[in-house]
Protein backbone atom coordinates (compact mmCIF):
# COMPACT_ATOMS: atom_id res chain seq x y z
CA UNK A 1 0.00 0.00 0.00
CA UNK A 2 1.35 3.38 -1.03
CA UNK A 3 0.18 6.08 1.36
CA UNK A 4 2.11 8.88 -0.26
CA UNK A 5 1.35 10.68 -3.48
CA UNK A 6 5.06 11.03 -4.24
CA UNK A 7 7.31 8.64 -6.13
CA UNK A 8 5.11 7.79 -9.12
CA UNK A 9 7.09 8.33 -12.30
CA UNK A 10 5.38 9.42 -15.47
CA UNK A 11 6.41 6.33 -17.40
CA UNK A 12 4.76 4.09 -14.77
CA UNK A 13 1.32 5.69 -15.09
CA UNK A 14 -1.21 3.17 -16.42
CA UNK A 15 -4.44 5.16 -16.18
CA UNK A 16 -5.81 8.30 -14.57
CA UNK A 17 -9.08 9.62 -13.21
CA UNK A 18 -10.19 13.16 -13.99
CA UNK A 19 -12.49 14.47 -11.25
CA UNK A 20 -14.43 17.72 -11.46
CA UNK A 21 -16.89 18.85 -8.83
CA UNK A 22 -20.39 20.09 -9.60
CA UNK A 23 -20.81 22.89 -7.12
CA UNK A 24 -24.17 23.24 -5.37
CA UNK A 25 -24.22 25.78 -2.52
CA UNK A 26 -27.43 24.28 -1.08
CA UNK A 27 -25.88 20.80 -0.77
CA UNK A 28 -23.95 19.92 2.37
CA UNK A 29 -23.40 16.17 2.62
CA UNK A 30 -21.36 14.56 5.38
CA UNK A 31 -20.97 10.91 6.27
CA UNK A 32 -19.78 9.35 9.53
CA UNK A 33 -16.87 7.69 7.73
CA UNK A 34 -15.45 10.77 5.98
CA UNK A 35 -16.23 14.10 7.61
CA UNK A 36 -13.62 16.23 5.93
CA UNK A 37 -15.94 18.20 3.67
CA UNK A 38 -14.35 21.48 2.60
CA UNK A 39 -15.75 24.83 3.40
CA UNK A 40 -18.07 26.21 0.72
CA UNK A 41 -18.09 22.74 -0.87
CA UNK A 42 -14.58 23.12 -2.36
CA UNK A 43 -12.66 19.90 -2.96
CA UNK A 44 -8.93 20.15 -2.21
CA UNK A 45 -5.89 17.96 -2.70
CA UNK A 46 -5.70 17.30 1.03
CA UNK A 47 -9.20 15.84 1.03
CA UNK A 48 -8.39 13.49 -1.84
CA UNK A 49 -5.16 12.38 -0.18
CA UNK A 50 -7.03 11.54 3.01
CA UNK A 51 -9.63 9.61 1.05
CA UNK A 52 -7.09 7.64 -0.99
CA UNK A 53 -5.13 6.78 2.14
CA UNK A 54 -8.29 5.24 3.59
CA UNK A 55 -8.55 2.86 0.61
CA UNK A 56 -6.50 -0.31 0.32
CA UNK A 57 -4.54 0.71 -2.79
CA UNK A 58 -1.88 -1.72 -3.97
CA UNK A 59 0.18 0.62 -6.17
CA UNK A 60 1.55 4.13 -6.24
CA UNK A 61 -0.61 7.09 -7.10
CA UNK A 62 -0.28 10.81 -7.66
CA UNK A 63 -2.65 13.79 -7.55
CA UNK A 64 -2.36 16.74 -9.90
CA UNK A 65 -4.62 19.75 -9.41
CA UNK A 66 -5.87 21.49 -12.55
CA UNK A 67 -7.74 24.77 -12.84
CA UNK A 68 -11.13 23.05 -12.78
CA UNK A 69 -10.53 19.63 -11.24
CA UNK A 70 -8.03 16.94 -10.31
CA UNK A 71 -6.06 14.26 -12.12
CA UNK A 72 -5.35 11.15 -10.06
CA UNK A 73 -2.77 8.91 -11.76
CA UNK A 74 -2.34 5.26 -10.86
CA UNK A 75 0.36 2.69 -11.45
CA UNK A 76 -2.22 -0.08 -11.07
CA UNK A 77 -5.55 0.02 -12.88
CA UNK A 78 -7.19 -2.02 -10.12
CA UNK A 79 -6.69 0.92 -7.76
CA UNK A 80 -8.64 3.19 -10.07
CA UNK A 81 -11.49 0.66 -10.04
CA UNK A 82 -11.56 0.82 -6.25
CA UNK A 83 -11.85 4.60 -6.32
CA UNK A 84 -14.62 4.52 -8.92
CA UNK A 85 -16.60 1.89 -7.02
CA UNK A 86 -16.62 4.05 -3.91
CA UNK A 87 -19.33 6.65 -4.04
CA UNK A 88 -17.32 9.87 -3.94
CA UNK A 89 -20.47 11.90 -4.48
CA UNK A 90 -21.70 10.80 -1.07
CA UNK A 91 -18.59 12.36 0.45
CA UNK A 92 -17.86 15.45 -1.64
CA UNK A 93 -21.21 16.09 -3.28
CA UNK A 94 -22.07 15.80 -7.00
CA UNK A 95 -19.04 15.32 -9.22
CA UNK A 96 -17.99 13.98 -12.60
CA UNK A 97 -15.37 11.23 -12.99
CA UNK A 98 -13.74 10.23 -16.28
CA UNK A 99 -11.26 7.39 -16.72
CA UNK A 100 -8.32 8.21 -19.00
CA UNK A 101 -6.15 5.38 -20.30
CA UNK A 102 -2.85 5.86 -21.99
CA UNK A 103 -2.42 4.70 -25.54
CA UNK A 104 -0.39 1.62 -26.12
CA UNK A 105 3.22 2.51 -26.98
CA UNK A 106 3.23 0.02 -29.87
CA UNK A 107 0.28 1.65 -31.63
CA UNK A 108 1.24 2.11 -35.27
CA UNK A 109 -0.11 4.19 -38.11
CA UNK A 110 0.32 3.35 -41.76
CA UNK A 111 0.37 5.21 -45.08
CA UNK A 112 0.46 4.07 -48.69
CA UNK A 113 2.86 5.39 -51.33
CA UNK A 114 1.15 5.52 -54.70
CA UNK A 115 2.49 4.11 -57.96
CA UNK A 116 5.97 3.14 -56.77
CA UNK A 117 7.81 1.34 -59.63
CA UNK A 118 8.52 -2.32 -59.03
CA UNK A 119 12.18 -1.79 -59.88
CA UNK A 120 12.71 0.28 -56.72
CA UNK A 121 13.72 -2.04 -53.89
CA UNK A 122 12.16 -1.80 -50.45
CA UNK A 123 15.57 -1.37 -48.84
CA UNK A 124 16.16 1.76 -50.93
CA UNK A 125 12.78 3.11 -49.84
CA UNK A 126 13.70 2.41 -46.24
CA UNK A 127 17.01 4.24 -46.66
CA UNK A 128 15.21 7.20 -48.23
CA UNK A 129 12.84 7.33 -45.25
CA UNK A 130 15.74 7.31 -42.80
CA UNK A 131 17.47 10.08 -44.76
CA UNK A 132 14.25 12.10 -44.48
CA UNK A 133 14.31 11.62 -40.70
CA UNK A 134 11.57 8.98 -40.58
CA UNK A 135 12.12 5.64 -38.86
CA UNK A 136 9.79 3.06 -40.43
CA UNK A 137 8.55 0.09 -38.43
CA UNK A 138 7.62 -1.88 -41.55
CA UNK A 139 7.87 -1.38 -45.31
CA UNK A 140 5.98 -3.79 -47.56
CA UNK A 141 4.60 -3.79 -51.09
CA UNK A 142 0.87 -4.07 -51.80
CA UNK A 143 0.41 -4.43 -55.57
CA UNK A 144 1.04 -0.97 -57.04
CA UNK A 145 1.42 0.68 -53.64
CA UNK A 146 3.95 0.51 -50.84
CA UNK A 147 2.65 0.35 -47.28
CA UNK A 148 4.74 2.05 -44.58
CA UNK A 149 4.11 1.70 -40.86
CA UNK A 150 5.48 4.28 -38.44
CA UNK A 151 5.33 4.48 -34.65
CA UNK A 152 5.84 8.22 -34.18
CA UNK A 153 2.84 10.52 -34.82
CA UNK A 154 5.12 13.28 -36.16
CA UNK A 155 6.56 10.89 -38.76
CA UNK A 156 3.03 10.04 -39.84
CA UNK A 157 2.19 13.72 -40.31
CA UNK A 158 5.40 14.35 -42.27
CA UNK A 159 4.57 11.56 -44.70
CA UNK A 160 1.04 12.84 -45.23
CA UNK A 161 2.14 16.43 -45.80
CA UNK A 162 5.39 15.97 -47.73
CA UNK A 163 5.32 12.41 -49.01
CA UNK A 164 8.52 10.42 -49.54
CA UNK A 165 11.45 12.34 -50.99
CA UNK A 166 13.35 9.63 -52.88
CA UNK A 167 16.91 11.01 -52.68
CA UNK A 168 15.86 14.37 -54.13
CA UNK A 169 14.87 12.85 -57.51
CA UNK A 170 11.15 12.20 -57.15
CA UNK A 171 8.53 12.62 -54.46
CA UNK A 172 5.91 9.92 -53.89
CA UNK A 173 2.61 11.08 -52.46
CA UNK A 174 1.26 9.36 -49.34
CA UNK A 175 -2.31 8.30 -48.62
CA UNK A 176 -3.59 7.32 -45.15
CA UNK A 177 -4.16 3.62 -44.65
CA UNK A 178 -7.81 4.29 -43.92
CA UNK A 179 -8.05 6.40 -47.08
CA UNK A 180 -6.64 3.91 -49.57
CA UNK A 181 -10.06 2.34 -49.81
CA UNK A 182 -11.55 5.72 -50.65
CA UNK A 183 -8.86 6.28 -53.26
CA UNK A 184 -9.62 2.95 -54.94
CA UNK A 185 -13.33 3.65 -54.79
CA UNK A 186 -12.82 7.02 -56.47
CA UNK A 187 -11.06 5.34 -59.38
CA UNK A 188 -13.40 2.34 -59.46
CA UNK A 189 -17.11 3.24 -59.72
CA UNK A 190 -18.14 -0.36 -59.10
CA UNK A 191 -16.70 -0.31 -55.58
CA UNK A 192 -18.84 -0.32 -52.47
CA UNK A 193 -18.04 3.22 -51.35
CA UNK A 194 -19.20 4.95 -54.50
CA UNK A 195 -22.21 2.65 -54.69
CA UNK A 196 -23.32 4.14 -51.37
CA UNK A 197 -25.60 7.09 -52.22
CA UNK A 198 -24.61 8.91 -49.03
CA UNK A 199 -20.86 8.72 -49.64
CA UNK A 200 -19.15 12.10 -50.11
CA UNK A 201 -15.36 12.21 -50.25
CA UNK A 202 -14.04 15.06 -48.09
CA UNK A 203 -10.54 16.40 -47.48
CA UNK A 204 -9.61 16.72 -43.82
CA UNK A 205 -6.98 19.36 -44.65
CA UNK A 206 -9.00 22.08 -46.40
CA UNK A 207 -12.47 20.64 -45.62
CA UNK A 208 -13.27 20.62 -49.35
CA UNK A 209 -15.01 17.81 -51.20
CA UNK A 210 -14.14 15.22 -53.85
CA UNK A 211 -10.43 15.01 -53.10
CA UNK A 212 -8.13 13.74 -50.34
CA UNK A 213 -5.51 15.53 -48.25
CA UNK A 214 -2.62 13.81 -50.02
CA UNK A 215 -3.58 15.57 -53.27
CA UNK A 216 -4.80 18.82 -51.70
CA UNK A 217 -3.10 22.04 -52.84
CA UNK A 218 -5.21 24.36 -50.70
CA UNK A 219 -4.34 25.93 -47.37
CA UNK A 220 -5.24 24.29 -44.08
CA UNK A 221 -8.70 25.15 -42.77
CA UNK A 222 -9.93 24.41 -39.28
CA UNK A 223 -12.79 21.93 -39.17
CA UNK A 224 -14.22 23.73 -36.15
CA UNK A 225 -14.23 27.38 -37.23
CA UNK A 226 -13.03 27.47 -40.85
CA UNK A 227 -10.05 29.76 -40.23
CA UNK A 228 -6.63 29.02 -41.73
CA UNK A 229 -5.09 27.12 -38.86
CA UNK A 230 -5.02 23.57 -37.55
CA UNK A 231 -7.67 22.43 -35.11
CA UNK A 232 -5.00 22.04 -32.41
CA UNK A 233 -4.64 25.84 -32.35
CA UNK A 234 -8.33 26.72 -32.65
CA UNK A 235 -9.38 29.28 -30.00
CA UNK A 236 -13.06 28.49 -30.50
CA UNK A 237 -14.66 26.24 -27.85
CA UNK A 238 -15.32 22.67 -28.89
CA UNK A 239 -18.96 23.02 -27.87
CA UNK A 240 -19.49 26.02 -30.15
CA UNK A 241 -18.38 25.08 -33.70
CA UNK A 242 -19.37 26.86 -36.89
CA UNK A 243 -19.44 25.24 -40.32
CA UNK A 244 -17.33 26.88 -43.03
CA UNK A 245 -19.73 25.56 -45.71
CA UNK A 246 -23.18 26.58 -44.44
CA UNK A 247 -22.33 28.65 -41.30
CA UNK A 248 -24.40 26.23 -39.24
CA UNK A 249 -23.74 25.32 -35.57
CA UNK A 250 -21.68 22.21 -36.37
CA UNK A 251 -18.19 21.33 -37.60
CA UNK A 252 -17.33 21.16 -41.29
CA UNK A 253 -17.28 17.34 -41.36
CA UNK A 254 -20.78 17.00 -39.92
CA UNK A 255 -22.57 14.13 -41.64
CA UNK A 256 -25.88 15.98 -41.94
CA UNK A 257 -24.49 19.32 -43.13
CA UNK A 258 -26.88 20.76 -45.75
CA UNK A 259 -24.05 21.28 -48.24
CA UNK A 260 -22.89 17.71 -47.74
CA UNK A 261 -26.44 16.39 -48.18
CA UNK A 262 -26.82 18.38 -51.39
CA UNK A 263 -23.65 16.82 -52.74
CA UNK A 264 -24.83 13.36 -51.68
CA UNK A 265 -28.15 13.87 -53.48
CA UNK A 266 -26.61 15.46 -56.57
CA UNK A 267 -26.96 13.66 -59.88
CA UNK A 268 -23.59 13.12 -61.59
CA UNK A 269 -23.46 14.50 -65.13
CA UNK A 270 -20.85 13.36 -67.64
CA UNK A 271 -19.82 15.83 -70.36
CA UNK A 272 -18.33 14.54 -73.59
CA UNK A 273 -16.57 16.92 -75.97
CA UNK A 274 -16.50 16.06 -79.65
CA UNK A 275 -15.65 17.83 -82.91
CA UNK A 276 -18.22 15.82 -84.87
CA UNK A 277 -21.48 17.61 -85.50
CA UNK A 278 -24.39 16.00 -83.70
CA UNK A 279 -27.75 16.53 -85.44
CA UNK A 280 -30.61 18.09 -83.54
CA UNK A 281 -33.26 15.50 -82.83
CA UNK A 282 -36.07 18.05 -83.00
CA UNK A 283 -35.11 20.26 -85.96
CA UNK A 284 -34.47 19.00 -89.49
CA UNK A 285 -31.13 19.40 -91.21
CA UNK A 286 -30.77 22.72 -93.04
CA UNK A 287 -31.02 22.16 -96.77
CA UNK A 288 -28.37 23.62 -99.03
Report on this structure.
This protein has a 4-stranded antiparallel β-sheet with strand order 2-3-1-4. The termini are far apart. The longest helix has 10 residues, at about 45-55. Mean pLDDT is about 75; it is low at about 25-40 and about 190-195. By secondary structure, it is of the alpha+beta class. About 20% of the residues lie in helices and about 20% in strands. It has 3 domains: about 10-100, Alpha-Beta Plaits; about 110-175, RRM (RNA recognition motif) domain (Alpha-Beta Plaits), CATH 3.30.70.330; about 195-288, no CATH class. This is Nucleic-acid-binding protein from transposon X-element.
Describe how the helices and strands are arranged.
Elements: E1 15-21, H1 45-54, E2 61-65, E3 70-74, H2 77-85, H3 89-92, E4 95-101, E5 109-113, H4 122-131, E6 136-142, E7 145-150, H5 153-162, E8 164-166, E9 170-172, E10 174-176, H6 180-187, H7 192-195, H8 258-264
Antiparallel strand pairs: 1-3, 1-4, 2-3, 5-7, 5-10, 6-7, 8-9
